[in-house]
Design a protein that fits this description.
single chain; 285 residues; alpha/beta; 5-stranded parallel beta sheet; 9 helices; 13 strands; 31% helix
C-alpha cells in the first residue's frame, strides 16, 4: 500500500508504489535528481507544446522521457495516454494545479492519483526541497548524500565571497522584448531569498504594480547599476544578447557579469548547488 499527503492536504493512495509517473516539467526534473525517472512530463502555458523548455528540464534524459505537451493542447485524454499511475504537479498557492485547466485537472484526478507540491513564494526553498525529497522517499528513492555535501560547499563559498563590506549589486530579471524588462522582487522568489540570506546584494526594484515583478524599461534597469545580472533563461524570455547594441542596456552591457537563472528551479540539492556556483562564479569574475 502506498500513500502520500500533498500540499493541499489531500492523501493519494495506491495498492502498490507508483512507477509510471507523469509530472510537470519542474517536478519531473527534481524527481530525476532523486533517482526517479518520470515516464512523461508536461509544460505550462508559457511552453512550446511540441518541445520542452531546456531551461526547466535540468538533467532529465529527454530521449527517454516523453513530452505530453503544454498549454491549450493539453487535455485529460492526452495526459492519460501513457497510462500513468501517478501525476506529480506543482501549485503557486491555493491548491490550483499549475499548467492545467481546472476542468482538465479535475477530470485527471478522477482517473489517477494526483500529488501537488506547493512551490510558491510562501515557502522557503529548503521547505520545497524537503517536500520533493519526502515524495521521492515514498517512491523508493533518495538524492545521494554527495549532493547535499556539494550544496553545503556552494553555500560556504558564497558566504565567503559576500563577507566583505562592499557587496556587488545584483539584479534578477526576465527580458520581455527590446522595450520592456521584468525586474524580480527578490523577497518573492524562494531561490533569491536564499541568495540574500547568504549575503548576496540583491537590489530591490522600485515599488509599484506587480507582486513578483516590476515591469520597467531597459533604461530603468540600467539605472540600477548592476554588477551582476541573474537573467531568466526560459525559452519565452528574450536573450540579453538580442538587445540592440545602441539601446539603453548598452550603457552597462560590457560592465555586468551575467549568470543564468531559471525562475522555475529544479528543487534538488544538486541543482541548487549548481545555481549557487554560477552566482559565485559571476561574483568572483
Amino acid at each position: 500500500m502506498w500513500e502520500f499527503s500533498d500540499d493541499r492536504g489531500q492523501v493519494s493512495t495506491a495498492d502498490r508504489r507508483p512507477a509510471r509517473i507523469l509530472a510537470y516539467v519542474q517536478a519531473g526534473a527534481t524527481l530525476w535528481d532523486h533517482g526517479i525517472r518520470p515516464r512523461a512530463i508536461f509544460g505550462s502555458g508559457h511552453d512550446d507544446p511540441r518541445v520542452p523548455d531546456a531551461a526547466k528540464t535540468g538533467s532529465l534524459p529527454l530521449a527517454d522521457v516523453a513530452y505530453a505537451g503544454a498549454g491549450a493542447t493539453l487535455d485529460a485524454d492526452t495526459l492519460l495516454r501513457g497510462e500513468p499511475d501517478l501525476v506529480v504537479a506543482v501549485s503557486y498557492g491555493g491548491g490550483q494545479v499549475y499548467g492545467l485547466g481546472p476542468e482538465t485537472a479535475k477530470h485527471l484526478e478522477g482517473h489517477v492519483p494526483v500529488v501537488v507540491i506547493d512551490v510558491g513564494q510562501a515557502r522557503t526553498l529548503p521547505e520545497i526541497a524537503d517536500r520533493f525529497a519526502g515524495l521521492a522517499r515514498s517512491l523508493g528513492a533518495e538524492e545521494p548524500a554527495a549532493a547535499t555535501q556539494e550544496l553545503d560547499a556552494a553555500r560556504d563559498r558564497l558566504r565567503a565571497l559576500t563577507s566583505g563590506p562592499d557587496r556587488a549589486r545584483v539584479i534578477a530579471l526576465s527580458p520581455a522584448g527590446q522595450e520592456q524588462v521584468h525586474l524580480a522582487r527578490p523577497r518573492m522568489w524562494p531561490e533569491l531569498r536564499v541568495l540574500a540570506e547568504l549575503g548576496v546584494g540583491l537590489v530591490e526594484p522600485a515599488e509599484g504594480p506587480g507582486a513578483n515583478w516590476s515591469t520597467a524599461g531597459w533604461a530603468q534597469a540600467a539605472a540600477l547599476r548592476p554588477a551582476v545580472v541573474l537573467a531568466d533563461i526560459r525559452a519565452h524570455a528574450t536573450p540579453l544578447d538580442a538587445l540592440p547594441a545602441d539601446g539603453p542596456w548598452a550603457s552597462v552591457r560590457d560592465s555586468v557579469r551575467v549568470a543564468p537563472w531559471n525562475p522555475e528551479p529544479v528543487c534538488s540539492a544538486r541543482a541548487h548547488a549548481r545555481f549557487l556556483a554560477r552566482v559565485a562564479d559571476a561574483l568572483e569574475a
